[in-house]
Amino acid sequence: MLIDCTTCTARDFACGDCVISVLLGGPPDRARVPLDLDDSERVALGSLAQAGLVPPLRLVRALPDDTARERGIA
Length: 74
Prior knowledge:
Blueprint: E1 2-3, H1 19-24, E2 35-36, H2 39-50, H3 65-70
């Protein structure tokens, strides 16, 4: 799973309650390199969030223009 905070539509208002900011001290965009989580890392973060130990991943990706038009929201 590729985490690219620079393209997250919840950026700025949800960063403070996102597992990426909590664990890394802020969005990883300082290095301008997306964070790549493998399946085991994604499952581990989900388990920690379910247990209430960290907030969940708040990443919200924008819909591509074609998908938004198909759904009638663009």
